[in-house]
Amino acid sequence: MRTASLLKKLNLDISEFEELLFDHSIVSVTDETGDIVYVNKKFCRISKYSEEELIGQNHKILKSDEHPPKFFTELWDTISNGNVWDGEIKNRKKDGIFYWVKTIIIPIMDSEKNITNYVSVTTNITKEKEIQERLIKMEEQLIKQNKTLLSEVESKSAELVKSERLATIGTMASRIAHDLKQPLTIMYTYAEMLTPEILSKLDSKDKEKWLRLQNSIFDMNRIIEDVLDFARTTEIKKKKSSLLSILRLSINHVKSSYGIEINLPENDVSLRCDSRKIEGVMSNLLNNAVQALDEQGEIDVTISSDSKFVTICVRDSGSGIPEENLEKIFEPMFTTKKTGTGLGLVICKSIVEQHGGSISVRNKPTTFTIKLPL
Ligand SMILES: Nc1ncnc2c1ncn2[C@@H]1O[C@H](COP(=O)(O)OP(=O)(O)O)[C@@H](O)[C@H]1O
Ligand SMILES: [Mg+2]
């Protein structure tokens, strides 16, 4: 307001002091509606428009559409009320390229305080803005990188703590398992002697007690075997083997019941593998399937192959694995069973991967799929 009235009072003709005062600035004058009535040379140079092209045009010709509408509403509110506006504007040149200016807009009034013109004096700050934008981008990138690094460090340290704890537990458990194995083998041998014929000679109360003892010994043996298998990281010894023979042998370690039917494939594939270990994998998967069936149901094992891989599927008619557990079942010590160790699938995965293969699972029907290179 003060500047505006000062200019008015001085009654200055802009063209007279243009060279002197505005040599370093970009200057334009519009009428009260924003139509350009004057531009200096610098204005033409930066906007890439000629003086003829600009005179008579509305100042909007430079609008970049990069500011929200509110920006210009506020600008017009300020100057049309006779106040000076200053700020930074992003404009568009004739060739479409943007440029930033630091601007001051002064309203000029006549004696009745009616606005007759607006004078705008601006400086080009495009370079500064570019540097500022680059700095902001760099800062954003740094913040992002920092976040990624932080979360990586967090997850790595969590992994370390977990694996260290697992290693300690593993060593301890395998030592205990090792010590228990010998007396357990004796108990297991005697428990196996309790055939149905012998048990039938006992009265029903005693029979139940002996059966429970036998089952507990079998359970203990399975747990100890799991732990020992887990701790054992012997190298695999591959030799040409018949997959069907491996499957047949694996059934010997499966504790099934009469209501469960296990269907083995009729076709066979010959592959190079550590047959003892693959046998262990198969009996693990079959035992899991049996346990999922609850005395009744069917288990189908199928084999298919192409020139490079053999695919073994173990499918059971059980109720499946809850969706939220699907990711966890291959983690050490994840079990949903009362006497489970949660080591079976970890052992399977490790053996399959040692063979250069993969193991996966899906529901409906519950199917474990093993892919092994031939
Ligand atoms: N065929 C299956 N059907 C349903 N759940 C299964 C099956 N196989 C594995 N699981 C789930 O995966 C878990 C982990 O299996 P595993 O590693 O063999 O350990 P464990 O048998 O000692 O529990 C099981 O406790 C069970 O919840
Ligand atoms: Mg198991």
What does it look like?
The protein has 374 residues and is of the alpha+beta class. The protein has three domains: 2-124, 2-Layer Sandwich (Beta-Lactamase), CATH 3.30.450; 126-232; 235-373, Heat Shock Protein 90, CATH 3.30.565. It has helices at residues 2-10, 14-21, 41-47, 51-54, 69-80, 126-193, 196-200, 204-231, 243-251, 275-293, 344-354, and strands at residues 26-31, 36-39, 85-92, 98-109, 115-124, 239-242, 260-263, 270-273, 297-305, 309-316, 358-362, 366-373. β1 and β2 form a beta hairpin. α10 (275-293) runs antiparallel to α11 (344-354). The longest helix is centred in the middle third of the chain and has 68 residues, at 126-193. The model has no long low-confidence stretch (mean pLDDT 88). Adenosine-5'-diphosphate (ADP) binds at residues 288-289, 292, 316, 318, 320-321, 329, 334-337, 340-345, 366.
What is the chains' assembly state? single chain
SSE order, as H and E? HHEEHHHEEEHHHEHEEHEEHEE
Given helix and strand content, the structural type is alpha+beta
Largest sheet: 5 strands, antiparallel
β-strand percent reads: 15-25%
Radius of gyration, rounded? 42 Å
- Rough shape? rod-shaped
Q: Give the % helix.
A: 40-55%
Model regions low in confidence, pLDDT < 50 over at least 5 residues: none
Bound small molecules, deduplicated: adenosine-5'-diphosphate, magnesium ion
Q: Look at the structure and give the CATH class of the largest domain.
A: Alpha Beta
- What is the name of the CATH superfamily of the largest domain? Histidine kinase-like ATPase, C-terminal domain
Order of strands across the main sheet: 2-1-5-4-3
